[in-house]
Predict the 3D structure of the following.
Amino acid sequence: MGGPKLPEQERCDTILAAAYQIALTEGLDAVTARRVATAAGISSGLVFFHFQSKDGLLQALLDVLLDGTLDALTDPALAALAPWDRLERMIRVELDRLVQYHAGVELLFAFYFARRDEVFRARIEASFGRYHDAFLPVCREAVGTAVPVGSGSTIATTGAPGAPGAPDAPDAPDESAGTRAGSPAGGVSADDLATSVVALIQGASIQAIRNPAAVDPEALLATVRALRPRPAERS
Amino acid sequence: MGGPKLPEQERCDTILAAAYQIALTEGLDAVTARRVATAAGISSGLVFFHFQSKDGLLQALLDVLLDGTLDALTDPALAALAPWDRLERMIRVELDRLVQYHAGVELLFAFYFARRDEVFRARIEASFGRYHDAFLPVCREAVGTAVPVGSGSTIATTGAPGAPGAPDAPDAPDESAGTRAGSPAGGVSADDLATSVVALIQGASIQAIRNPAAVDPEALLATVRALRPRPAERS
DNA sequence: GCCTACATTGATCACCGGGTCAATGGCGCG
DNA sequence: CGCGCCATTGACCCGGTGATCAATGTAGGC
């Protein structure tokens, strides 16, 4: 009994990797101390030695899962784009990520729905909240600088780019009367837009879990694009 | 030992009600034969007598959960409305339902993510699929009859987006731009619209679970409304 | 009233989960 | 070399789970 010593961090990583692997392939329920230990090639007791309890292990696992989730959305390269382009780009990036890591996303949902523990929920919800926050600024910009059709001034959005690969987007609701309070030009307020975008992405994440191959980012993007006001419009 | 006889159906309903109650308030994990039996005021063995296994119990529970999910969307009263109004109405009804029965929706997700069993998943996914199907016809109508503005419905798609307001498409992964056929007047094809609507609602359902009070149906409806083409003016 | 059919009981089994712990191994240091 | 520290082991405990089953009570037909 007794085994080769390994540096603390490395052992923890080994265990976590094993746990992650099991969770991804066999579900969260399959993550038991014994199975993780076996998969990691160690004894069960060691799991409790490094993480004090199973809860500790799962917390750490959630850390891994949540780590770096929002990095793609803060890519500085995005700052260069005009608001609507940036928004579109962010959505595309996010959708691609969801499809690519659908197993991880599924695991995240499993965490949320299986463990009703307050701590887990709070952290995941916080992550979702940051999601919304990440989209709000762009939405504000997009809505704000959106449609200068009536009141001239700057058309900042449309600088020089001659729109080489301009997508379809035939026409858009140019002058819709904003029934909703605080609803500026585009017909949607920034908050409404952000809320909708987040809902759209979250909904897509569920579809990505159901059938990753069937998710069509273009369908959702086409919808978003239709929201985009067009200053000059043919009739 | 031995107890008062009750008609088969009634006993089953009693057990199911108890199981449902426990599942709603304490989560799916808390649904054990013993707890259900205690809550129903019977002995544990009886649970297995009526439902052969715990799986059987859960199947029946899922039945209860899935039953009548789509009824509201086929309300004949909806047929009288114009397409876009009907679509809007359906979404509103659905969102309200999600908020009202958020606990049930959460339970549904718990079923989906906790039990990775094929049977459960298949049934829930089928339900989601029907969801999509329920929205498709309206979307078709809405897109089709959408914009009598100017000329014939068919041009739009890739006609000639003068693209004054369309800066460079972010990355335009070739497939997107022109090839996205079947996108009539509104800027979105019927399928895209249906996909987006379903995603929107599913996303909203997640938010409803997080915090039912914070869900703002108007925000999402405002977005949908912004998708609606305005020929001239409406109220 | 009796007897068959069946709902009902609760003790019981095998199993598996989280968590503990004394014993043991290796490793560095004096 | 010897000593002590600590990672490591795996057997062990306890509780809870799904499931079984002989025994028992009740209802309804004759």
Summary: Residues 1-6, 8, 11, 42-46, 49-50 of chain A lie near DNA strand D (CB under 10 Å from a C1').
